[in-house]
Task: structure prediction
Amino acid sequence: MSALPRPSTIFLAAITALVAVLLYSPLFVPIVSSFFSIAHGDVDWSSPTLSTYRALAGNHDILAALRTTLIVGLCTVVLSVVSGTLLALYYHGRRSGRSILQFIIFLPFLMPPIISGLALLIFFREIGLERSLLTVVIGHTVFVLAIVYRTVLMRLQSMSRTLVEASYDLGATGWQTFWRIILPNLSSAMVGGAILAFALSFDETMITILVTGTQSTLPVRLWAMMRLGFSPDINALVALILMFTVLLCVLAARFLIPRQMATERN
Amino acid sequence: MSQLVTVLAFALPVIFVLVPLAIFLVYSFFSVDQGTIVYAPTLGNYVRFFTDPIFLPVFWNTIVLCVSVAVICILLAYPAAYFLTTLKGRWRYALLMLLLVPLLMSYVIKIYAIRSILGLNGFLNKALVALGILDQPSTLFVFNMNAILLTLSLLLIPFAILPIFLSLERIPQTLLRASDDLGASSLQTFLRITLPLSLPGVASAASFVFVLAIGDFLTPQMVGGISGFTFGRILYSQFGTAYNWPFGAALSVALAIVVIAAILVGERFGRSRGTSV
Result:
């Protein structure tokens, strides 16, 4: 961009700062209040404390929901990475039927989650599958599949054909080429896709609310609790989760961005 | 072996995506009698949607609400995205990351925090009273449509920043320099070059934000109170308290049509201008 007059730069910077404050204020409020105790609905600012964190360790309800969320997340990651990679390998370089199937894979991601969730809810009922963690895992997998598929497919497309050709020239079989050449080249895209899938599953609420049985994931549990208002220990949980998500973001960025940047620079 | 792979590759998306959506569509033509679903085709649900005085106004209000959310998001996101493109190298992407990271933060928790900020005893009211702008806490942002509007806008701004930033970044520098060389002021360059060339990004940003806003039922449920009634909430209630799944399915079809239209419009404007550069 060409240099702007100073007042307009200041104006733009001010709006950007405002946007940053708006985006981060709902994240900072619970974090800051997690270090203070709340009495009679008012925060006691005088004495910082870790009591909310101690109370959290004793909240079995929330810890159980957290465990459920992690189990669902791990199952979703395994299912979506395996099937997303297989689909990407299958459709890569194949023209017939690809665009229509790709469209189907992307549908749950494009449609409002309430529609995807309700469609699955009715589907499970019609095939006689009780609502349980299994239905939640299926719902999450269907939802995140598009992201994993796309991440892996993009890496496949940026992979040089010559690697595979060289492998065949040197006498490797199809399987050897797959295990020694293709899979190692895809691994960082798969890990990046897995992290994104886990992050999405960890936060998925709208589909989960509709397809879950008696056990609910953390966001759903929190949503149910919010109607009554939070106990202070939730602030501690929020702070921990936010830190955890930042960690996931950094990890995902590490696996997905550096290689692209590196290839751009060369 | 390869045939098995082919079958699997087609079967998975079809079984778990297409079949549920198809069943869903079929369900919208069924009806409910005393708590059980009657599997006989009828247009009753759609007739009810168009004739009942409740549904169309809420539907329309929700569309207006979500368009407003998209407008607010773009008004805030455009200057921010523009500012990012004036930065050099590493700073540009660092700041972009900073503005996008809140996307991955827990949605439910953000809604809750915003609700506590907007509440009657919330931070916003306290600040306004402390600054002397208000005499007493205002109920303007408490459990109503305004609260939904503000909350959705706050949640969705990052979705507007990214496409606008990408379209601004794609504008060839040579065009801006040429405009400068020909004696245009920076305002003229912005209005005649930058703004028109960034409109595809604005279109996809608007369509993203609109689609995400209209599909949300958590936010209105959390911050809307009794007066903040949106289409998403009505839809959700058909599957909970009202237990009328076929009617809920018909309402979802109406929602899906609006969403598809918004995506197509976004694509149309996002592409036609984009390719002409």
